[in-house]
């Protein structure tokens, strides 16, 4: 190891003090100070030496260091303009590290990453959902996404049909990947301590996702169906502007009763509904 472990409360405080840094609430920064959690995230990512990893929001390099020590080639995208100077020091000597300053939602990821790669990140909670869905919807050659998220978001990602947490995000994530919660992380593992429990989610991206003729229309149907959870499918979709008779025809062709609610439909049933509705839209 080129440097002492950053994932330590004393080391983290030293770095923050040395560079006169404070965790930015605006950017949702909470610095990981538990080396055991870093080791567990790296293990969950199942890294092979030389493997390409995209990290989002490396911060002061805490998780990055663990990935680099595992032999990964890490390309990290960081929005905070104060942190490149910090990372230049904390990760000095690691030749398998590349920093790309910028916003992950605006950067052309295809230009900075190779044909196949994994994503490993401790995501800022305020923008977690948008980042995950963007990564999946862009159809990038990602094989696995390992992310630290708020426990509530993790539960939504993995929830099955019929559960209270099952929603549009569940369908969107499960349409393109097979998600599971690897482990939970307590607030004590961060500086400063967040008010919520976190969880690490592993999404194995489907190499051959379920086929739909129009993915944009599919997502539109999913979101419209969950738009008013307490309403039946026929009423939710009618309220979203779809023709009632065409909805009934599509539901019948898909073998779905019109009085069912969105949270009872599986991903496969949403696919059938969207495909049949697209034929009569």
Short overview:
This protein has 281 residues and is of the alpha/beta class. It is built from twelve helices and nine strands. It has helices at residues 9-18, 35-45, 62-69, 83-90, 109-112, 128-137, 151-158, 168-176, 215-225, 233-239, 244-254, 267-280, and strands at residues 31-32, 52-56, 73-78, 97-101, 117-122, 142-150, 177-185, 190-191, 198-205.
Number of strands: 9
CA radius of gyration is: 21 Å
Number of helices: 12
Low-confidence parts: none
Give the overall average pLDDT.
Answer: 93
Q: First CA to last CA: what distance?
A: 60 Å
Largest sheet properties? 7 strands, mixed
Strand ordering within the main sheet: 4-3-2-5-6-9-7
Overall description:
- The chain is an alpha/beta fold.
- The chain is built from 12 helices and 9 strands.
- The protein has a 7-stranded mixed sheet, sandwiched between helices. Strands 1-8 form a two-stranded antiparallel ribbon.
- α2 (35-45) packs across α3 (62-69), α6 packs parallel to α8 and α9 (215-225) packs across α12 (267-280).
- The mean pLDDT is 93.
Strand and helix map with partners:
Layout: H1 9-18, E1 31-32, H2 35-45, E2 52-56, H3 62-69, E3 73-78, H4 83-90, E4 97-101, H5 109-112, E5 117-122, H6 128-137, E6 142-150, H7 151-158, H8 168-176, E7 177-185, E8 190-191, E9 198-205, H9 215-225, H10 233-239, H11 244-254, H12 267-280
Parallel strand pairs: 2-3, 2-5, 3-4, 5-6
Antiparallel strand pairs: 1-8, 6-9, 7-9
């Amino acid at each position: 190891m080129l440097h002492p472990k950053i994932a330590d409360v004393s080391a983290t405080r030293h770095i923050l003090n040395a560079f006169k840094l404070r965790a930015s609430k605006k950017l949702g920064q909470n610095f990981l100070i538990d080396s055991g959690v870093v080791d567990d995230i790296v293990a969950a990512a199942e890294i092979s030496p030389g493997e390409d990893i995209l990290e989002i929001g490396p911060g002061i390099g805490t998780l990055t260091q663990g990935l680099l020590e595992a032999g990964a080639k890490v390309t990290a995208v960081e929005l905070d303009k104060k942190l490149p100077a910090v990372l230049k020091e904390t990760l000095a000597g690691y030749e398998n590290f590349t920093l790309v300053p910028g916003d992950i939602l605006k950067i052309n990821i295809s230009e900075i990453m190779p044909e196949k790669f994994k994503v490993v990140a401790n995501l800022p909670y305020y923008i977690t959902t948008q980042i995950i869905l963007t990564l999946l919807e862009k159809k990038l050659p990602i094989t696995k996404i390992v992310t630290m998220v708020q426990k509530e978001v993790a539960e939504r990602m993995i929830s099955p049909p019929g559960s209270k947490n099952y929603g549009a995000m569940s369908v969107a994530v499960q349409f393109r990947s097979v998600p599971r919660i690897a482990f939970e992380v307590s607030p004590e593992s961060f500086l400063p301590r967040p008010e919520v429990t976190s969880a690490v989610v592993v999404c194995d991206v489907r190499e051959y996702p379920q086929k739909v003729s129009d993915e944009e229309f599919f997502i539109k149907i999913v979101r419209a169906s969950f738009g008013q959870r307490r309403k039946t499918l026929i009423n939710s979709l009618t309220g979203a502007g779809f023709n009632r008779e065409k909805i009934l025809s599509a539901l019948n062709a898909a073998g779905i009763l019109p009085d069912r609610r969105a949270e009872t439909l599986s991903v496969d049933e949403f696919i059938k509904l969207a495909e049949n509705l697209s034929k009569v839209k």
